[in-house]
Amino acid sequence: xxxxxxxxxxxxxxxxxxxxxxxxxxxxxxxxxxxxxxxxxxxxxxxxxxxxxxxxxxxxxxxxxxxxxxxxxxxxxxxxxxxxxxxxxxxxxxxxxxxxxxxxxxxxxxxxxxxxxxxxxxxxxxxxxxxxxxxxxxxxxxxxxxxxxxxxxxxxxxxxxxxxxxxxxxxxxxxxxxxxxxxxxxxxxxxxxxxxxxxxxxxxxxxxxxxxxxxxxxxxxxxxxxxxxxxxxxxxxxxxxxxxxxxxxxxxxxxxxxxxxxxxxxxxxxxxxxxxxxxxxxxxxxxxxxxxxxxxxxxxxxxxxxxxxxxxxxxxxxxxxxxxxxxxxxxxxxxxxxxxxxxxxxxxxxxxxxxxxxxxxxxxxxxxxxxxxxxxxxxxxxxxxxxxxxxxxxxxxxxxxxxxxxxxxxxxxxxxxxxxxxxxxxxxxxxxxxx
Length: 435
What we know:
single chain, eight-stranded mixed sheet, 20% strand
């Protein structure tokens, strides 16, 4: 007797693909369910109100993030490639014992060649040089530079190579950008190593970014941001005075912390830090975000701060953004923020890649973390936090200069935007967990 033909031949043929898609969909739904912040419920402060100027705020931050408070450090603000890369190359050139470089972005251009040449020179001089490259973010890097570095004795490793990482880990990258020299000088911020970051944000081909250079005990925290990613990638634990020398404190720029976070179940250090800082604001918040696509809980935190009288200014990229999907998803929350009194500017001259926040003119953070779910939940990030009115003044001065060349989003005009733009925003905001 002839076998009856399947009533669903197409379904039978494609069931393996459908099964995989079903597993992925279930995993995605499960991730949503385990995070209460997707529903707009964030944190609240229980106990007395905090002031970001107070020791109590630092103690709360230290408790939440496990980032120790460090004092007696020197701090130098670096704005754009014209300031960042000379400090970068100078620090490498002065290395006597070790150089540790970790970056998410290493692409092409003269600066890519210059950094590689500086690392090669130090390795040939007998300095221990270690370079860790995120396998996804540095995919466009010229492999010849890696060959040259390895030939000179540089130890180069890839973080989570795409061919060797389980599919569940492909989405979790290291987004950190740190350089540590001799365990005593550290650079941290948002800059990538590519021609886009050179110059002074003078045109769309030269991006706007912020970095800092520090000296003193705080460098040990930046070394830690390198060391834990390096340990995963290589199995090496970096110890001894070449990497962890004694770092005596001196008259410094105010208490500091290096907060680092990694993907995991529940709350990360970075999102806890940002919630704490926003909830503690009494007077002002100045936020610069290269990628701004906040979840409902962060929108709630900002609107609550505005409603209690905090002046909030948000600066985000304008039309020159390199990921327009993120821009459109972020624009979906403008209506609610503007209605609460938050003021929003879009940077006009070029791509804005800086990630900074200043609270009440007294506490600031600079680093690799953006104001989106990818930084708060998916990527490894590292930020320097500083309780200092002097440093906050420097950042605020730069913020004001950036606002002067930005376009403010006016509530009335924004409400009259085209229907197709509203539809696109609402479609893309559904993807914000992956942006």
